[in-house]
Amino acid sequence: MNCLQSWPEPIVRVQSLAESGITAIPDLYIKPPTKRPSLLPANCNQAEVEVNIPVIDLQNLLSQEESLRETTLRSISSACREWGFFQVVNHGVSEELMKRARDTWREFFGLPLDVKQEYSNKPSTYEGYGSRLGVEKGAILDWSDYYFLHYMPASLRNHSKWPALPSSCRKLIEEYSEATVRLCGTLMKLLSQNLGLEEDQLLNAFGGEENIGACLRVNFYPKCPQPDLTLGLSEHSDPGGLTLLLPDENVAGLQVRKGQNWVTVKPVPNAFIVNIGDQMQVLSNAIYKSVEHRVIVNSVKDRVSLALFYNPKSDLLIQPAKKLVTKDRPALYAPMTFDQYRLFIRTKGPCGKAQVESLKSYE
User: Deepest of 60, 299, 320, 336, by most Cβ within 10 A of its Cβ?
Assistant: First the structure.
């Protein structure tokens, strides 16, 4: 990652642009016509676009009735195979903690610009306050700012990179990250069982509980005077293993690709949105699919979301699990470390599924 030391152009904070009172967005945020959110495919069925991703109640996993547990496992398996996305409720993370997380980070983005600028990031690590992904000069940018930080492994935690304001922020990061990492560990075991693997096999492939990589990106999507011309986050699949998203309950924005259509996710109260990343697609030999998604913006409301990325240890080789490689289904991906893999998105920025698809080796 050391080759990415600086941004190719001066950084402009999107929030500052939005608050300046502009009525038209600068050209470098205007997407090509085929990438704009206002366009729907000619064969689009509007009713299909209005469906929601699966919602799964994890409480049934604790039921004494084996049938309820099996039904929940089947629902998760189906969601991973057919959608790559699902929402979970009764997941064990307190509603109060979820609310504090959103409120605290909204307060951070409400601070004066000079306070936030103290945490400005660089592309070598992305850690801190940022406004672009990718380092290609002249790239069309997304309408968003963000804050990115490392939580796991513990050796990467750098509290000086975490905001000191609001005063509750650093303690909140610890509490929230611990709870969401624990939930991801539980989900990893369920995904492993559904693949017919040992309960801890996927987790061990990631390096084990103490060695996994976990990082938090808090997204701030300012209101936009021309939301039909841009995106808060361009279409992409997540490069890591598993993503746990705490959405803004009051402003929808996440869209998931389903076939040729984009489905706008309707957040369920007190739910997390879970999605499969590219590394999980590789490990499962494409039984589980990472799916393209993007974020639309709003003309009258800002939006805040928190994405916890649960990733493999960065220097471990990730390849299809041996049990999932057969004569009829050979290994689709060659071994590669996560460090090697994510360099692509850190250079190019969000690029659909170009990276993971480029790795496939067909007989």
Answer: 320
Residue 233 counted as domain residue: yes
* 363 within domain boundaries: no
Q: Is the pLDDT of residue 150 over 60?
A: yes
Classified as helix, coil or strand, 91 is: coil
Residue-wise pLDDT tens digits, 275-285:
999 999 999 99
Tens of pLDDT, residue by residue over 93-138, are 999 999 999 999 999 999 999 999 999 999 888 899 999 987 888 8
Nearest-angstrom CA–CA distance, 330 and 310 = 26
Phi and psi of 225, rounded to 5°? Answer: -70, -20
> Within a domain: residue 168?
yes
The amino acid sitting at 42 is A
Q: How many domains does the chain have?
A: 1
Beta strands in the chain (DSSP E): 55-57, 85-89, 128-130, 145-152, 213-221, 233-236, 242-246, 254-258, 261-264, 272-276, 293-295, 303-311, 317-318, 336-337
- What is the pTM (predicted TM-score) of this model? 0.91
Average pLDDT over residues 29-57: 73
